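Q: Give me the 3D complex with magnesium ion.
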Amino acid sequence: MTTKKQEFKMDSRQKEIENLKDYKYGFSTDIENIRAPKGLSEEVIKFISKIKKEPEWMLNFRLKAFERFKQLKEPNWQKPKYPKIDYQDLYYYSAPKSMKDKPKSLDELDPKLLETYKKLGIPLQEQARLNGIAVDAVFDSVSVATTFKEELTKQGIIFCSMSEAIQKHSELVKKYLGTVIPTTDHFFATLNSAVFTDGSFVYIPEGVKCPMELSTYFRINASETGQFERTLIIADKGSYVSYLEGCTAPMRDENQLHAANVELIALDDAEIKYSTVQNWYPGDKDGKGGIYNFVTKRGLCKGKNSKISWTQVETGSAITWKYPSCILKGDNSVGEFYSIAITNNHQKADTGTKMIHLGKNTKSKIISKGISAGQSDMMYRGLVDISSKADNSRNFTQCDSLLMGNKCGAHTIPYIKNKNLKSNIEHEATTSKISDEQLYYCNQRGLNQEEAVSLIVNGFCKEVLQQLPMEFAVEAQKLVGISLEGSVG
Amino acid sequence: MLSIENLKAKIDEKEILKGLNLNIKPGEVHAIMGPNGSGKSTLSNILSGKKGYEVNGNIKFEGENLLELETEERAHKGIFLAFQYPLEIPGVNTNTFLKTSINAIKKARGEKELDAIEFLKLIKQKSSELKFDQAILNRQLNVGFSGGEKKKNEILQMSILDPKLSILDETDSGLDIDALRIVSEGVNSLRNKNNSFLIITHYQRLLDYIKPDFVHLLKNGQIIKSGNFELAKELEKVGYENFN
Ligand SMILES: Nc1ncnc2c1ncn2[C@@H]1O[C@H](COP(=O)(O)OP(=O)(O)O)[C@@H](O)[C@H]1O
Ligand SMILES: [Mg+2]
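A: Here is the predicted complex, encoded as structure tokens.
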């Protein structure tokens, strides 16, 4: 072809796209770590508990979970299969050495860590902080910094790392930890209860509307390390909080396990909005490497008129396996699940939600948008369970799948249990495909292939994107486009 | 502006165009008439860069080899096709589509992109010129549009994208008389000494309004007769069959 054409091709927009095509968070930070001895044992659990200076009840909580874990079998009913994980060949704790004596302020924080977060677009320093968003930054097994802490403290809001909460807000943690996801839960959740390392803790006092977005940024850096995040959010009576988590990891040939537990508790008239933008390393084009994202997220609408809303944009990970759920215990409580899941190349996802209606007049809404491209495979799996006591309850579910190309798969399994004649469940599902004709039409109007796909896909996902806090909606929109690049044409 | 030399096109081993020649100079309006299946849409698709055809021959657009350009590059350079069957894109708001389109083209041309206010102003003006109900533009692109609304939407896009060569593929088919007049006015208002048109139609009625400079008969993959407006009248009177 002519040089003219090549020049044309490499205009700035094109270059921008070229740069974005590669997973841009794939770098790793060369930093000295402290690790627990390899493998899973009572000693390792004691090591973790000790290094975190935990009270005895916490260690007992962990050991109880470990006892239980030893009796549990790894589940195998999910659609995406994976090679057997050797749980003795993992590190369960890894933290930058410089974090051993916890830095008192950001000035004392290892410059390498500051640099890492800057590169990830999450500046932690005072002057560069994101406007109106408080960030808790978790690096491998520890929280390295939390911003805007003082401002929040003034209103009685607690936003800190889980480790800090266990020491400083022991009564609250003790009262609520494990009440939504008990230590006797399933395999991965129980494993998490035994070995969890860090995550965020949020407490919003009665009647307080949290004045800014709270967000946690999870970063896996060390190799051969599992990340066992634990997050607990409590919204006391009449309070409100919007929380967002983001995640990235370096590109590595090995698969890394991320098994988090997230518990949300909303008391009377409280509302929690929890958003996730998950962009863990998805593996390369041939399916090598990537994160196993096996996460348990559960919210309890404990009080009357409470509301919990999950919004997730899942674009990363080799395998995503999670069902953020709501237990609607309080009368008139509301649960919502808005999801965009995108799989490309060899990625696999088995995701959805569970809405358990226990209280009267409880309402739930599920909007799921699954997009599969390349040779990937996508499963929506959901459960709506209305108990016999949940009079006048309602669920609306809409599951839409969009296929790109002929080699990918999309499946929908909605389990429905309605034990109450006065309640009602409505389910809609569609499957569609981006046609070459649609792309041609967009191209004819001046959009290149990437722009066309991005426009069509964002249109398909709009209902869910609208749920994200403004600041993140734009980012998520870009991410949606980027993660599908190379999937057509 | 456009010169097509000995254009041959195949799809799935089926020969559709069999040596077509056509020259369009700046400011000229050409009409192409011809029986169903003669290759009219194929010609417009090849000009605008649809993939999947095996193409031979030469096409020059403003001195450049058109066949080497990507579909969107042709759009950036000013080729516009009003589709015979405009596509529906569920979920995509029509206004969003129009804005993305015009800004993609402006960006490629090195012009300043429109912000939301400039865009709305332009849309308001153009849709009132075309008597196009602006409320429709808040709906999903072409989804649930009537046949006439779809065609008018194509003409609206043509008028905001300001193309050099506009190809209208049976835009008049299925339009009522009022819509037909509006479409013709849309074309006429864009008409100047630099802009050219290739208008595919079966009906003289549209040409009454538009008054083409040349009329061609496309049959069996070739232009077998060219003339002026009189040819259109003759074709409509005696039918395509009687020409060989
Ligand atoms: N994708 C295709 N595969 C096979 N044949 C095609 C395809 N597209 C068009 N054709 C055939 O090519 C011929 C010309 O089609 P078309 O250009 O649409 O005609 P016109 O627009 O003049 O009615 C027709 O016989 C049509 O059936
Ligand atoms: Mg046709």
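A quick observation: Chain B has one domain: 2-238.
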